[in-house]
Write the structure tokens for this entry.
Amino acid sequence: MSHYTAPVEDMGFVLKEVVGLEKVCEEAGLDTSTVDIIETVLDAAGKLAKEEIEPINKPADLEGLKINSSGEVTTAKGFKEAYQHYVEGGWGSLQFDTAYGGQGVPFVVAASVQEMWHSANMSWGLCPLLTQGAVEAITHNASEELKQRYLPKLISGEWSGTMNLTEGDAGTDVGALKTRAIPEKDHYLIRGQKIYITWGEHDMTENIVHLVLARLPDAPAGVKGISLFLVPKILVNEDGSLGEPNDLKALSLEDKIGIHACPTCVMSYGDKTGAIGYLIGEENKGIQCMFTMMNNARLTVGLQGVSIAERAYQQTLSFCKERVQGVAPGYTDAGPIIRHPDVKRMLATMRSITEAARALTYTACAEVDMAAGDLPTEMLARHNRRLGLLTPIVKGWCTETAQEVASLSLQCHGGMGYIEETGIAQIFRDARILPIYEGTNGIQSMDLVGRKITGDGGLGIKELILEMKAFSNQISPDTLLSKAQLDRFKESLIALEEASSLVLNNSENKHYLGMIAFDMLMMLGTITAAWQMLKSLEKAKAAFENKKVSSEFFESKTKSVGHFIDSILPRYLAHFTTISATSC
Amino acid sequence: MSHYTAPVEDMGFVLKEVVGLEKVCEEAGLDTSTVDIIETVLDAAGKLAKEEIEPINKPADLEGLKINSSGEVTTAKGFKEAYQHYVEGGWGSLQFDTAYGGQGVPFVVAASVQEMWHSANMSWGLCPLLTQGAVEAITHNASEELKQRYLPKLISGEWSGTMNLTEGDAGTDVGALKTRAIPEKDHYLIRGQKIYITWGEHDMTENIVHLVLARLPDAPAGVKGISLFLVPKILVNEDGSLGEPNDLKALSLEDKIGIHACPTCVMSYGDKTGAIGYLIGEENKGIQCMFTMMNNARLTVGLQGVSIAERAYQQTLSFCKERVQGVAPGYTDAGPIIRHPDVKRMLATMRSITEAARALTYTACAEVDMAAGDLPTEMLARHNRRLGLLTPIVKGWCTETAQEVASLSLQCHGGMGYIEETGIAQIFRDARILPIYEGTNGIQSMDLVGRKITGDGGLGIKELILEMKAFSNQISPDTLLSKAQLDRFKESLIALEEASSLVLNNSENKHYLGMIAFDMLMMLGTITAAWQMLKSLEKAKAAFENKKVSSEFFESKTKSVGHFIDSILPRYLAHFTTISATSC
């Protein structure tokens, strides 16, 4: 039995109605035919997720990974086969450049498919996630020769990719890293040790392409002296065939709270002769190159929050419908616990947060597509501003709320949630990495207030608030949305305007910005998610009237939106009070 | 190196100044000499916690437990020895009746000592916690003969106790249990299976006294047909010596997210001839008897929230002072991460929640003492009302906030928090049981709104609000507390009054009560904790002026209270909005 069925109806609805996939394709300059086949794509991906990738999730959590003395890692049972089918299905190449074997599908569609992998099996899904990042960094920064040699196999998924940033003394402070790169002929020799390398070594692909940050001799101190290198596990000959193994190996695997089936490696480069690496982009510009992959990876981590929340909700809903315990108000006999109001409340919270997080994340992902379109400069700038602003919000808010949803799913299971049997415990453990990797949520908050809000003098945030205000003014209270609910949203926008002014007026006061950054991120996340929920309600109504969605879907969306506006949106009040009370 | 040092100064301050230990002793009719020796007691307990009980915490998490085919459980290395020293030190008998070997120390003092055990090692601390519950149930309900035979060894800690409620189909709905008890001679024969029995079997004591809920033949259905039985692991002869083993055994141990060193057993009673049990209290009144132990156990679980929060804070503070990463605002060089404002924010949140939770929990524990005093009926009734009201708040709020503190402690560690090495991961995993056992927090919420607030027509809640209002009116804004901060507290009381009216006016609408119960619990928890923090500030000021506390302590308390009022108290706004928005 699979614990996950892809929520294809909501995904399709968000893509087509809320995000407006057709318009996204047009602005992005991509083929709009995707819109017509979207259900087919989602169904096919959903089948792979449900039937192959989910069933190996829990067994792999128990089995874990093996590493031998040569540093070879053996993945859990079924991982390799499921990955093979993923490659054969062409799932890795959806959003990439057709020139290198990609399918030219919008990123936002690829994101909706990726949501499924992470719902089904987060440990497994991290392998394609990292490969995607490597493809982006190479596509945007590497020489044509490197692209020709590495991209096709990475895009197909025959090879996988990694990101090597962290060292023992260089985590959040990546500028402190010590790995060295010495120029030699047409390449560099890399020497150093990296930690926390996700899928750094494994047996699912015949080659692994490591992107490694390192310092050249005499490079400036800090982040301005870091360069990015492509360091393949197996060297690649000119004709594209595999050559000799490179001088690198996995030393050990970390023992983690969760994602037990995902190898988190300590990697050693250049123990013998030096690992051969190829420069990506310019010398000392490695951080900029890495950020082209980091930004989308941050969105994808936010998406993992949606994934884990969706999965947690589905499994908990089934449990609450089956588990009989106690007589609920209005009943005379013992029945399933879903009858109890407090359980209903927890499920409604889980569901509405998940749906809001999905709409918000897909909206941000669509900006990736549009920001790469062939549009007038001003429109491109606007898409880039919006993308920049939404990225830390999606990463931060969707991973924080994923913790809440995972914890609620456990709580609904009572004592059974705390023991490992049901699999809910694994969800709770797996989810906890999300606020940490790809930049902790503290870093996201600082990125939000220190760069995204203040960097352009408030242009992006003001534009966003204006758009939300205009939206709020064109809806009227009706049977679906009471005046009080609409007013609550409008008031939140006024508060947001005030909070933004506080940030902008104190843009030089880094201490103040740091103190309020996290509250600002959560406030913005809550309010933009509410905006997306209200938009979803409007679009669901129209879609129902046009017979595009079922009455059940419309009814369920209406409830979900109402719960969000009544029970989740009010949280901004606490964040706003704290922001206002913090002394500058 | 121990990761925990008992916060003796804050404990002593809360006991003597905030709770008013001397007055508590007087009202409780207990020897006030405890007040004079309180520091000595806390120091001695702190030494045992730090030097013996904490160092075996992490190794035991890794080692776990063993069970053999006879159902014998072997505890982790050092557990038995530490327990032996605990018994020798007389730590188990502090608060119990001197007639049975207890020391007649106030419960609130015993609670402060217990806080240390759970900070040091939650798995280990659960054994004495359960024994305490068994002692209470026997003391208040059992026959004198049973008391004479069982209490002295339970009170000394030579024997341990358990609570056996849950069965596969009877968790929260305890009335659904199926374990049978058939009368025979002077005893009963018990047959059935119980799950989730904490410390149900182990090798630390020579006997284990199980308190088991079971049904007599022809007992009424549901909770009104349940009786409580004392079922010893080894039968006890009339002279108090140990006799034959009883017919019971542990079948298996649960594989849990955390508290790996605490045996959570599936227990089987009466597989062969029937387990011999002795009735405690009257037939079919088992639930009432069990509740005499459940209530104090609920307070103690809230206390575990304080414990785990304190421990998480201490370990994280050390880490943040040592871990060098990045240049903080106002600095020119890389330094410890405690310099970063967002890290400061997390630490301040952890600290202020921990201190508030301690003051609130000790205040509730002191009500246990006073409610047992030799006082006029009206005063006793008042103490009982307050105790009843605070019990679900302490259990619920202090265990919910403990999750937040544990999660923040992990977050401050970044990637190092997610791997098992630092021990922070264990804190996060251990803590997650707290909102579940001893009645889930959903059950606490229903107890709060369905019984405690509405049961007496609002008497208790109105009394509490009145007391908080009177308190708020007698303080004036000064350099320690701004007018805005004081007003925030006063406004929260007005909102609380309104929310309480909503609950009282809809006391028959169980569906509505269920929907808002959890928000009500969190709102009340937040506001009563703020009250205790403001009280702490007032008392700290007086204590500093009277040279009872250091200037560092006073300064630190001032900061902690300010942070609570600015950053934690505002959360009530979200809960209140949700309560108001939920339709009746």
